[in-house]
Amino acid sequence: MLQRTFIRTMGITAAMTVMLTGALAGPAMAAYDDMDAVSLAKKMVGKDYTVSEETPAKGFDASGLNYYIFKMLNYQLPRALDDQFKINKPSIKSMSNAIAGDVLFFGTGTNPSFSGIYIGAGKMIMASSAKDSVITEPVSKHTSQFIGAKRVLSALDQKRVNLVLLAQQYLGTPYDFGAAYGQTKTFDCSSFTKWIFAHNGVTLPRVSRDQAQEGTFISKANLETGDLVFFSTPDSKGKIGHVGMYVGDGMMIHTYGAGGVKFSTIETGWWKDHYITARRVLK
Fold first, then answer.
1. b/e burial code for range 6-17 (CB count within 10 A of at least 16 → b)
2. Overall average pLDDT of the 20-26 stretch
């Protein structure tokens, strides 16, 4: 299930066109193998609303968007909205309990008329007949019509989503080699990964070389979101001197030098040439 995950946000896309997951290139994009529900839903914003359709090329209706998103992530949903509402997945009765990746349903009683994929911060992605496209919408506009939600993603997939959602909150935070752990005004590479993982129940050592001893080895070809990726630096003399967190489609989130916390490709340039290894610490 959702074997490789990443997060992409519209704000990030506007800020940097080549930095995050799914930079519209690379073999992973063919099957969206590196995406999660939130990321892929956001990628569909702007696509047409089309009754009875379920593809980016032809457009989506409400259930078609859900069907497509989760099919790309190896989760099989029924095609009809009524059947999606009845699937054997954990039910969420209160909108206040929704988490990123949940499918929200709106209508009357037990009869859904439209739906959206919750992306956190009180917003959802939905195929809107009124706007004739896939849009980002505040869930507060439809509170009175909410009839329930389904939690489709597994607990591990949710953890991957949450790792990147948290990491993104620190974009632009200045880099400071040797930054004190526990404060968030500055980070170095390993204090950043240690902080992010600690808030998702994973304790890591303080420095990158020690973090590279945690978990299990993962080949570069089998990276998944949440894997730690390690590199040499100009000062590390060929040994591990840097760590980032893989976020899918050849990208990582990390901090190093100017710009602080940022997204960078590991498929070209310095980080490709100085890649050493990767470790999986999520269980």
1. bbbbeebbeeee
2. 27
Please choose, from the candidates 70, 225, 76, 246, the residue with its C-alpha nearest in 3D space to the C-alpha of residue 156: 225
Q: Given this model, what pLDDT does residue 36 score?
A: 65
Task: Pick the most confident of 29-38, 62-71, 160-169.
Answer: 62-71
Write out the E strands in the chain: 54-55, 59-60, 91-92, 103-108, 111-120, 123-128, 133-138, 146-150, 216-217, 228-231, 242-248, 251-255, 261-265, 275-280
**Confidence bin at 116 (pLDDT 50/70/90):** very high
Tell me the three state secondary structure of residue 175: strand
Query: Edge-to-edge strand order for the sheet containing 146-150?
Result: 91-92, 146-150, 103-108, 111-120, 123-128, 133-138
**Average of pLDDT values for 86-115?**
95
CA distance 44 to 20: 15
Task: Tell how many helices (H) and how many strands (E) occur in the chain.
Answer: 8, 14
- The C-alpha angle with vertex 250 and arms to 269 and 229, in degrees rounded to 5, equals 85
Instruction: Find out whether 37 and 152 touch, Cβ atoms under 8 Å.
Output: yes
Q: How does pLDDT run across 152-201, given as a tens digit for each residue?
A: 988 888 888 889 889 989 999 999 999 999 999 999 999 999 999 999 99
Asked whether the beta carbons of 38 and 166 are under 8 A apart, the reply is no
What are the structural domains of the chain?
37-152 (3.90.1720.10), 157-280 (3.90.1720.10)
Do the bridges between strand 261-265 and strand 111-120 make them parallel or antiparallel, or are there none, so unpaired?
unpaired
Question: Is the Cβ–Cβ distance between 224 and 4 less than 8 Å?
Answer: yes
∠ CA 60-64-66, rounded to 5°? 115
Stretch (H or E) spanning 24: none
Q: How far apart are CA 117 and CA 122, in angstroms?
A: 11
Note whether 102 and 37 are within 8 A (CB): no
